[in-house]
Amino acid sequence: MATPRQLALALGHGESFAREDLLEGPENAAALKLIEQWPDWPSRTVALVGPQGSGKSHLAAIWAATAGARVISGHTLDETGGPTALATGALVVEDLAVGIFDERALFHLLNMARAEKADVLITARTTPIAWQANLPDLMSRLRALPVVTLDPPSDTLLRAVLVKLFADRQLAVDESLIGYLVSRMERSFAAAGSMVATLDREALRQQRPVTRSLASELFRDPVTP
C-alpha cells in the first residue's frame, strides 16, 4: 500500500474546481442554482456569501469557466484596473471584506459594470450590507446587491467530501475513520482537505496505513485548516 500513496503524493493534489467535482447538498443548493441560472440573474452583479471553506471559490470557478470571467482578488482592486478586469464582460471578485479593498475602486468597478452590461460575481464571508463602507454611494450599491448564502457543510456532506478526497489519493479507508474525522474537524472543506493531506503525508512517512489509529494520534484535538 505504501507505493501507491508515495506515487500519489509525488504527483501532487491540486484542488479541482471542475463542475463534476462539486459535491451537492442543501447547503449549496441555492448558490449552485444561481450559478447555473446565469445569464438569467436577478441583477448583473450578485454576491455569494459564506464562511471560509464553504465552497464559494469552487462555485465561482464553475461560473468563471462558463461565463469566460476573469478572476481577481478583492485586495487587488484599484481604480485604473476596471477596464482590464471587465474586458471579457464577466468578472469574479474573490474574498471581499471590510478594510481590504479600495472603496472608490469598487464603486468605480460596479458603475462600469452596470454601464457596460458586464456580469460580476462577488464572493465574501460576510454580507455586503454589513461592511459599513465610508462612501455613501457605495453603500447604496452594496445594499442593492442580491445575496445568496452558503451554509457550512453538514456532517453528511463532509463525509462525502472526505471519502472523495481519500479516493483522489488512491486511499481506501473505512467508515470508522471517516466518522472519527468528522467528529474532530471544523465544518469546512478546507479542514477536510487539510486532514486528508496530513494523514496521507504521515502514513507515507511512517510507512503505515491510513487508519483511525493513526488519525487519533494526529488529531487528539479538534482541527482547523
User: How many domains in all?
Assistant: 2
Q: What would you give as the CATH superfamily of the largest domain?
A: P-loop containing nucleotide triphosphate hydrolases
* Average pLDDT: 86
Flag low-confidence runs. Answer: 1-12
User: How would you classify the quaternary structure?
Assistant: single chain
Sheet with the most strands: spatial strand order: 2-3-4-1-5
Radius of gyration: 20 Å
Order of helices and strands: HHEHEHEHEHEHHHH
Quick summary:
By secondary structure, the protein is an alpha/beta fold. It has 10 helices and 5 strands.
How is this structure best described in words?
- By secondary structure, the protein is an alpha/beta fold.
- The protein folds into two domains: 29-149, P-loop containing nucleotide triphosphate hydrolases (Rossmann fold, 3-Layer(aba) Sandwich), CATH 3.40.50; 153-218, Orthogonal Bundle (Helicase, Ruva Protein, domain 3).
- Helices cover 48% and strands 11% of the residues.
- The chain contains ten helices and five strands, in the order ααβαβαβαβαβαααα.
- It has helices at residues 2-11, 29-37, 56-67, 82-85, 103-116, 136-144, 155-168, 175-184, 189-206, 212-218, and strands spanning 45-49, 70-73, 90-96, 119-124, 147-149.
- Strands 2-3-4-1-5 form a five-stranded parallel sheet.
- α5 links the parallel β3 and β4 (119-124).
- α2 packs parallel to α3 (56-67), α7 (155-168) packs parallel to α9 (189-206) and α8 packs parallel to α10.
- The two termini are 27 Å apart.
- The relative contact order is 0.16.
- The model is unreliable at 1-12 (pLDDT under 50).
